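Retro notes, item 3 of 5
We never archived the inputs for the zinc ion complex last cycle. Fixing that now. Sequence and ligand:
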Amino acid sequence: MDGEATLEQVISNGYRLRAYCEGCGHTAFLDVIDLAGRYGPARPLSAIRRRLSCRHCRGRACALQIAIDW
Ligand SMILES: [Zn+2]
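Structure as it came back at the time:
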């Protein structure tokens, strides 16, 4: 994989996206199909990360992890 991963790459590989809040440690799986519908499948993950906020503490320090095993 060259450069930044996009939503499309995550979906086509059957991976999932997990958001991790650096503020409170809350983790949540994201609906990548829904994100691709809202932001476009070519959107890089770094752009998605900037739009995230924690559902638990409303912090914005979220990390994105690609979850391959499930
Ligand atoms: Zn949080």
